[in-house]
Amino acid sequence: MNFVDPKVLEEHYQMYQVIDEEGKVVNEESLATFSDKQLKELMTRMVYTRAWDEKSAIFTTKEIGIHAPVSGQEASMIGSQYALGQTDWIAPTFRDIPQIMWHGFPKYKAILYQRGHFVGGQVPKDVHVLNPQIVIAAQMTQATGLGLGLKKDNNGQVVIVYGGDGSTSQGDFYEAMNFASVFGTNTIFFIQNNQYAATVKIADQTTTKTLAQKALAAGIKSIQVDGMDVLAVYKVTQKARMMAAKGEPVLIEAINYRIHAHFAGDDPSRYRLLDEIHENWLAKEPLIRYRKFLEKRNLWSTEEEKAVIKHAEYDLDQAIEKARQVPKQTIADLETIMYQSTD
Ligand SMILES: Cc1ncc(C[n+]2csc(CCOP(=O)(O)OP(=O)(O)O)c2C)c(N)n1
Q1: For the chain, how many structural domains are there in total?
Q2: pTM reported for the whole predicted model
Q3: Which domain holds residue 281?
Q4: Which residues are catalytic?
């Protein structure tokens, strides 16, 4: 009699990396496929995202409403979105605002979404994103359905659905993967394991050593990637995109770390000791290591970084100003838009 031990799976997962924590290349072959322009663009987008995030946190409650901080997760977010085509779809959570903004979702609408204004939920027709989901894992079943539609359209489009580690403890996650596997939908499940579901740490959510292995029960291939390494995330998503476009759904587990609170305004020190574990994660954070990598190649400077930060802060001010011009919503608005299609 032989009960299979989940430990047999663990050795198959080796976190995929292109650069290590010191910005040193560990995978020359993957690196060779990037142009200097792409290498710089990835940094520009990450720095922009960090600046937007930090300034948003200051504005929270006054202007923005609920802001879910993303610092520490830029490599996962930017690297994965960068690997998509413009006509691919994104099914985001409340935290995945950077990906949808880079995919064309208007910035002022992102502010309105965070304020709970209905205009923030109206996605322009030519922008391929779903409304950010606040119900944990509900976006997974939606992305499976959308992935089935894309398969039937047969245009090579895919949908990427984001979820936190907490979403993998939900029923919708398993149901979505099972359906995706049975019907061969064009879906990429992208799990951002940022170590916490609100205040609950990963060790209190699951006894599996990886979240990636959860896909295997549904018959879906999966991989673990260093979610603080933007080049690795890009490469892995690019491959996943090719597979999903052929009706092979896949799961990516990106290991990263949420540096700030769950929602801006929370006090993370109530559930997370700001001790050496925190310090250890900070040392791995995506901007520091990627900056080291670029500087070694003379592809990045302090001046460039400052200019990007200034640009992001300006854009945020503009977006807030534009959001201010939108009339306050009323109860009657909610009733009228209930059965209307979006613009
Ligand atoms: C079905 C459901 N249960 C509970 C909540 C309350 N809630 C909001 S965020 C959150 C934690 C989400 O954690 P995770 O999926 O890991 O995403 P993260 O915020 O870490 O990116 C919870 C439990 C919710 N929104 N939906």
Answers
A1: 1
A2: 0.96
A3: 9-259+273-337
A4: 258, 262, 271
